[in-house]
């Protein structure tokens, strides 16, 4: 049902009147025109649509707008602060941790939430933390390395 | 939408509306130096372009602009494979400009010359040499201009970093920008100017990171689905439950009641459109439709019998010696059949297209490996002359051979025409699995023998429906024959229950799995280490070197299989590249689970433009190859596809990852060969052989699922 919903998107307040049962993925991409978050499977299996809500990684294709009322929503567009790339973004570039790049925003956002919880992860912890993010080009090893590198640079802070 | 907004969507800083008429182009492109060149054989080019009103004497060109920047226009596209980087490196090096002074303008059908499509690992292999030669020739033009400008003979001049200078006095120099300023020079490549020798390379052969990664890590990179135009509608299309099903009844009344939804019915073609894709989806769900599906009992189990039954007569594609004599000389004969099920391409970006019609012109943004085919198809659908259709490929989120047909583009064009609005068609994952052109199910039958001394005496190879690529064996066997039944991967009427097509290194994955499994069986029968056995049968020096390199890196110690170590080896040739792969696996006998612990892959791909890029492609091949080797299989009943998402169609995940080590053999003096496909061909064979080495049982069907491994153990 239509209602007015407020939340913070990448640090800025957003107010929309929408059917609040709609999934955030589509509201972000179409109503708000923020297209960095990608559709991959629509059922939460591929994690290409991963965003961060109140520091938790969620699948935006499975998250209704009403569930983010009053919350802080972070997408790939909000990661670079004042024009400075986030350590994860830099590490993905340095390690060439992407090919087609379509799964990349979801990978980075999932890794962001993961590193906040576990700033100095082991390789096997990263693998476990990223297990549900799918990549078809086969950049997995480099993604693991990039997350390790970023974790070191962040030294516990995001 | 004004023109500037359109340009944003072009992702280039080039004038729009440039037609591929040379005089016209020069007029619009402003000043500078233009060099036209041809990739491949002109007669082939003319053939491919039959009926197309396009220039017939060149199919690529580069421009040195008045700002000194170099632009290369090619119909190839970037889909993750990294050619935007490697092609740029070649051009920058030959022209002596920094890499970041080169812009690659790719795939835009208004700006770029016609191209067949991006597949077959051909961009670097065929486009590369022509591009380098054109770069060298353009540099020659710059030297001539510099000679006039600096009043010094050209032979006294050298070039570096976008400048030409006097070798005796480096202060006496002029930039390319100055040289191009106010000029309108066009040349046609003669191919007579020598390219750089490997010892002169400054940029080629050096690793550089991807040029498109900043856009991709910030979310700025635009894919077709990210193209949003004013007034654009998202379409969701009514789909049949099975291939071949016919729509017999449809009730649109409930869907039509959804606010602001446009429901379109054009014959059997029914769609719901809305400014939000999820609302269109919701309206589509309210359409009540009845379909009549044809009866078929084909499924993933009986498909192989069916294929053998409907196989056309075979074509002998290679033959030497006398098979009968070979059989007589054999002490042991092995006859086996190998099976491979249907595989999905499953790129994470589903097929997507946006079409906007303005009067009698159309602009198309599409995830496609074949933008020029898309242009023709849209023109046909809309009844427009093809020059009125412009296709702009944004970033493509993975292709692997699957984005060569353009069904979604035609659908978007049809709906744009019917609705009178710009339309985006973005397939759902279910549609992606339904309309994929799957890698075909296939059967390989091999009969081969060894003498008492362990020498292979004959090889009789028959491949059904996989295709010809990779079917030729490269071992030294005196009597051999290779027969191909249906040389293409598309099959004919009455063969496959749905569309099939090229899948990364088409045919070769199936052929290499079968061949390398059979070679291993022969080695085991001979009681010889599988690497040693291969080397004994290899006269191909390149393959010998690659195999020895892999063995050294792997620290392979000879042992007769099954040794219990779980070590496997497989060799292959694809797209001109020679590859040898070794793997270590751990097999859980109780569950049938296979964990690939380590993969070593050595490759000779001739001259390597970007070693880092080539390494990434090898790693990608190895990782993606784990999927078809171990888990990926399409389940179906008749034309109904049972796998509709990633829950049942399992593609490789982080936890599957082996330790990957790659070696690229230094071979700068040979022409560059394919890099995006070769390593994947060995993955089925190397894992099958490693499983056998681990537990002494062999699986003859891909994928080698836990169930099939348990069955094989039970059989003993």
What does this structure look like?
The complex is a heterodimer of chains A (158) and B (716). Chain A is 34% helix and 17% strand. By secondary structure, chain A is of the alpha+beta class. Chain B has 716 residues and is α+β, with helices and mostly antiparallel strands. Chain B folds into 3 domains: 3-218, Aldehyde oxidase/xanthine dehydrogenase, molybdopterin binding domain (Aldehyde Oxidoreductase, domain 4); 224-293 and 351-426, Aldehyde Oxidoreductase, domain 4 (2-Layer Sandwich); 303-343 and 438-715, 2-Layer Sandwich (Aldehyde Oxidoreductase, domain 4), CATH 3.30.365.10. Chain B is 30% helix and 24% strand. In chain B, strands 11-12-9-19-16-17-18 form a 7-stranded mixed beta sheet, with helices on both faces. In chain B, a hairpin with a 2-residue loop joins strand 6 and strand 7. In chain B, helix 4 (83-95) packs parallel to helix 5 (123-150) and helix 15 (508-526) runs parallel beside helix 19. The interface between A and B is large, with 59 and 59 residues.
Instruction: Please indicate the count of domains of chain A.
Output: 2
Mean pLDDT of chain A: 96
Shape of chain B: flat
* Beta-strand content of chain A: 15-25%
CATH topology tier name of the largest domain in chain B = Aldehyde Oxidoreductase, domain 4
Structural class category of chain B: alpha+beta
CATH superfamily of the largest domain in chain B: Aldehyde oxidase/xanthine dehydrogenase, molybdopterin binding domain
How is the biggest beta sheet of chain A arranged? 5 strands, mixed
CATH superfamily of the largest domain in chain A: Beta-grasp domain
What are the key terms here?
heterodimer, A: 158 residues, alpha+beta, Ubiquitin-like (UB roll), DNA polymerase, domain 1, 2 domains, five-stranded mixed sheet, 5 helices, globular, B: 716 residues, Aldehyde Oxidoreductase, domain 4, 3 domains, seven-stranded mixed sheet, six-stranded mixed sheet, 20 helices, 30% helix
């Amino acid at each position: 049902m239509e209602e007015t919903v407020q939340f913070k998107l990448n640090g800025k307040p957003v107010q929309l009147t929408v059917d609040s049962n709609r999934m955030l993925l589509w509201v972000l991409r179409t109503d708000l025109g923020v297209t960095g978050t990608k559709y991959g499977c629509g059922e939460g299996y591929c994690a290409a649509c991963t965003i961060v809500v109140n520091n938790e990684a969620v699948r935006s294709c499975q998250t209704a707008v009403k569930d983010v009322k009053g919350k802080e929503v972070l997408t790939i567009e909000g990661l670079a602060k004042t024009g400075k790339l986030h350590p994860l973004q830099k590490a993905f570039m340095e390690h060439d941790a992407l090919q087609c790049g379509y799964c990349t925003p979801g990978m980075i956002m999932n890794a962001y939430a993961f590193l906040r919880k576990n700033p100095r992860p082991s390789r096997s912890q990263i693998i476990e933390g990223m297990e549900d993010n799918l990549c078809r080009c086969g950049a997995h090893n480099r993604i693991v390395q990039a997350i390790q590198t970023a974790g070191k640079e962040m030294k516990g802070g995001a | 939408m004004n023109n500037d907004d359109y340009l944003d969507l072009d992702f280039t800083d080039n004038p729009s509306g440039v037609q591929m008429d040379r005089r016209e182009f020069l007029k619009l492109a402003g000043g500078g130096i233009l060099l036209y060149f041809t990739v491949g054989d002109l007669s082939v080019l003319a053939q491919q372009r039959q009926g197309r009103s396009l220039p017939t004497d060149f199919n690529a060109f580069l421009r040195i602009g008045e700002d000194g920047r170099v632009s290369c226009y090619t119909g190839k596209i970037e889909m993750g494979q990294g050619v935007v980087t490697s092609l740029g490196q070649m051009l920058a090096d030959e022209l002596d400009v920094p890499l970041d002074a080169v812009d690659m303008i790719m795939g835009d059908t208004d700006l770029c010359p016609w191209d067949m499509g991006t597949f077959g690992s051909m961009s670097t292999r065929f486009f590369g040499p022509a591009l380098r030669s054109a770069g060298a020739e353009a540099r020659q033009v710059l030297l001539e201009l510099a000679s006039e400008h600096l009043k010094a003979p050209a032979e006294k001049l050298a070039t570096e970093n976008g400048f030409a200078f006097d070798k005796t006095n480096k202060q006496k120099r002029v930039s390319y920008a100055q040289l191009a300023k106010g000029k309108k020079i066009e040349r046609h490549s003669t191919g007579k100017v020598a390219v750089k020798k490997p010892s002169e390379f400054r940029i080629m052969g050096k690793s550089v990171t991807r040029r498109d990664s900043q856009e991709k890590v910030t979310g700025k990179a635009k894919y077709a689905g990210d193209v949003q135009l004013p007034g654009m509608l998202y379409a969701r299309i009514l789909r049949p439950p099975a291939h071949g099903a016919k729509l017999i009844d449809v009730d649109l009344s409930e869907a039509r009641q959804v606010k602001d939804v446009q429901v379109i019915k054009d014959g059997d073609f029914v769609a719901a459109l809305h400014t939000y894709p999820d609302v269109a989806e919701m309206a589509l769900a309210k359409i009540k439709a009845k379909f009549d599906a044809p009866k078929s009992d084909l499924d993933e189990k009986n498909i192989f019998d069916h294929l053998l039954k409907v196989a056309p007569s075979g074509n002998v594609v290679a033959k030497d010696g006398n098979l009968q004599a070979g059989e007589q000389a054999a002490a042991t004969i092995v006859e086996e059949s190998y099976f491979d099920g249907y595989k999905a391409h499953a790129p994470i970006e589903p097929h997507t297209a946006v079409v906007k019609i303005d009067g009698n012109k159309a602009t198309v943004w599409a995830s496609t490996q074949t933008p020029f085919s898309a242009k023709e198809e849209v023109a046909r659908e809309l009844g427009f002359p093809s020059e009125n259709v412009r296709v702009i490929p944004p970033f493509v989120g993975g292709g692997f051979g699957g984005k060569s047909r353009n069904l979604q583009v035609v659908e978007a064009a049809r709906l744009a025409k019917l609705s009178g609005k710009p339309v985006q068609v973005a397939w759902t994952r279910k549609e992606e699995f339904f309309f994929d052109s799957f890698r075909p199910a296939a059967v390989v039958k091999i009969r081969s023998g060894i003498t008492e001394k362990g020498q292979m005496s004959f090889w009789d190879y028959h491949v059904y429906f996989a295709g010809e690529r990779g079917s030729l064996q490269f071992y030294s066997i005196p009597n051999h024959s290779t027969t191909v039944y249906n040389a293409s991967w598309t099959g004919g009427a009455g063969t496959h229950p749905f569309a099939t097509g090229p899948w990364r290194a088409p045919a070769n994955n199936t052929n290499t799995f079968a061949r390398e499994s059979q070679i291993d069986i022969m080695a085991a029968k001979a009681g010889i280490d599988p690497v040693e056995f291969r080397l004994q049968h290899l006269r191909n020096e390149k393959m010998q070197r690659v195999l020895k390199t892999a063995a050294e890196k792997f620290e392979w110690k000879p042992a007769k299989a099954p040794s219990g170590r779980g070590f496997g080896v497989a060799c292959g040739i694809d797209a001109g590249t020679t590859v040898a792969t070794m793997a270590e696996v751990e097999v859980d006998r109780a569950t049938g689970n296979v964990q690939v612990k380590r993969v070593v892959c050595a490759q000779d791909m001739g001259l390597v433009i970007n070693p880092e890029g080539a390494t990434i492609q090898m790693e990608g091949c190895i990782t993606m190859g784990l999927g078809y080797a171990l888990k990926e299989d399409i389940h179906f009943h008749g034309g109904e596809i049972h796998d509709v998402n990633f829950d049942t169609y399992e593609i490789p995940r982080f936890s599957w990852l082996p330790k990957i080590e790659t070696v690229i053999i230094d071979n700068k003096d040979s022409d560059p060969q394919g890099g995006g496909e070769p390593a994947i061909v060995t993955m089925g064979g190397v894992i099958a052989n490693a499983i056998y080495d681990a537990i002494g049982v062999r699986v003859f069907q891909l994928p080698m699922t836990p169930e099939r491994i348990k069955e094989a153990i039970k059989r003993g």
